[in-house]
Amino acid sequence: DTAVSQTPKYLVTQMGNDKSIKCEQNLGHDTMYWYKQDSKKFLKIMFSYNNKELIINETVPNRFSPKSPDKAHLNLHINSLELGDSAVYFCASSLQGKANEKLFFGSGTQLSVL
Amino acid sequence: AQSVTQPDIHITVSEGASLELRCNYSYGATPYLFWYVQSPGQGLQLLLKYFSGDTLVQGIKGFEAEFKRSQSSFNLRKPSVHWSDAAEYFCAVVFGSGNTGKLIFGQGTTLQVKP
After folding, report:
1. DSSP states of chain A as a string?
2. Distance between CA B59 and CA B52 in Å, rounded?
3. pLDDT digits (tens, 9 = 90+) for B50-71
4. pLDDT over threshold 90, residue B99
5. Is the peptide bond before B115 cis (omega within 30 degrees of 0)?
6. Maximum mean pLDDT: which of A42-51, B24-33, B83-92
7. Which residue of A has its CA nearest to B88?
8. Partner of B56 at 20 to 30 A CA spacing, among A19, A68, B28, B78?
């Protein structure tokens, strides 16, 4: 069983569209994250949720809206997609959300905005 | 500013050769240090971590890393590289406190292994 799974793996779309990426973890962890990896491989945190509550909200355009229906799921909805949104988006989870905990990552969603 | 620096963007080694990947961090870092590996098309996987105690830590896949406080470094090593080690390697460091601090990743080092 995959511990952290996200779908889709690839997403190609036009500028201006709205798209969603889904993430699920079966580890029983309390905290889930969204990270963005740009073309230079920089990995930067976007959001974290602990038990459905937003904990970290980095400087991310409000076109990005995370939603956590329960602690096992964290989805990312992006409105009005722009060229600069093209990147690989990783979902991750950790046991309690402490900064020094091991992170478990999904395999990523490669988003290409044309 | 809080930063983690991996000076080598790209490294190529021959299979069977030894490997060292460098990682340095700025002032303000806690002693919570990590190395993650990202294989092509995959998410990141934890290789090893240092929290306290012996400054030489062992990880999975035969990797080890040494914490040197005086040099603000946490370099990753492997005595003999295998072709399957070709991947992207990320150093990550917690700034602030271990519980509520912030995890910052370096920009990664791409390892290529020659046959």
Report:
1. --SEEEE-SEEEE-TT--EEEEEEE-S--SEEEEEEE-TT--EEEEEEEETTEEEEE-S--TTEEEEEEETTEEEEEE-S--GGG-EEEEEEEESS--TTSPPEE---EEEEE-
2. 15
3. 998 899 999 999 999 999 999 9
4. no
5. no
6. B83-92
7. A41
8. B28
pLDDT for residue B27: 80
- Please answer whether residues A33 and A45 qualify as being in contact, where contact means their C-beta atoms are separated by less than 8 angstroms: yes
* Contacting residues of B for A40, CB less than 8 Å apart: 107
Give the distance from residue B31's alpha carbon to the nearest chain A alpha carbon, in angstroms. Answer: 9
Residue B84, number of CB atoms within 10 A of its CB = 10
Contact A89, A53 (CB under 8 A): no
Tokens of B49: 């971590």
Report the pLDDT value the prediction gives residue A1, as an integer from 0 to 100: 62
The pLDDT tens digits for A26-72 are 999 999 999 999 998 899 999 999 988 888 888 789 999 999 999 99
**Is the pLDDT higher at A3 or at B28?**
A3
Q: What strands lie across the sheet with A4-7, from one edge to the other?
A: A4-7, A19-25, A73-78, A64-70
Q: Sign of the CA dihedral A95, A99, A104, A108?
A: positive
